[in-house]
Design goal:
- The chain has 150 residues and is an alpha/beta fold.
- The protein has helices at 2-11, 20-31, 94-104, 119-128, 130-136, and strands at 35-38, 43-46, 58-63, 82-85, 111-116, 141-146.
- A six-stranded mixed beta sheet has the order 1-2-4-3-5-6, with helices on both faces.
- The protein is 33% helix and 20% strand.
- It starts with a helix and ends with a strand.
- The longest helix is centred in the N-terminal third of the chain and has 12 residues, at 20-31.
- 29% of the residues are buried.
- It has a single domain, classed as 3-Layer(aba) Sandwich (Rossmann fold).
Length: 150
């Protein structure tokens, strides 16, 4: 990790590389009061009092934070219900994804987990196994794998 921190700090103008991700996520909640932050799990999620919360299937996605973290910007009405951020250039951990589904989104209408088709991201989501949530927690959940390349 020290090598990564040193490499990042030499190439970017940031105050503290360790706090970079939570700082970026916190700024999203300041810009958009309709979302909240679970800082421990790096989850941006829609507020419970949002107008359509509970009336639709919850959609969850996420990925590494080498790109802003980008998926957090898509949380909102008619978009994602929550986004899980990994560390810099690393997918979120399986426990983060589980915490997102079990604690941060409404599961009453079901959950759609959108998995980005990077090898690491897809394997982390696979390890997390939606089957365990579907069978143990009795939640209707499905996954779809998408890619942005041809």
């Amino acid at each position: 990790m020290e090598h990564l921190v040193k490499e990042i700090s030499e190439k970017h103008f940031i105050n503290d590389p360790i706090k970079l991700i939570n700082g970026a996520l916190k700024s999203i909640t300041i810009a958009n009061p309709a979302v909240n932050l679970d800082a421990d799990n790096k989850i941006i999620f829609r507020s419970r009092n949002s107008s359509s919360t509970g009336s639709q299937v919850s959609i969850v996605s996420g990925g590494g934070s080498g790109h802003e973290p980008s998926f957090a910007g898509y949380v909102g009405e008619g978009l994602l219900s929550a986004a899980v951020a990994g560390t810099i250039f690393a997918s979120p951990a399986a426990e983060q994804i589980r915490n997102c589904i079990m604690r941060r989104v409404d599961t009453s209408k079901g959950v759609l987990v959108v998995i980005m088709n990077y090898t690491v991201c897809a394997s982390i989501y696979a390890v997390f196994t939606l089957d365990s949530i579907k069978h143990v927690e009795l939640i209707n959940a499905i996954e779809v794998v998408v890619t942005d390349t041809n």
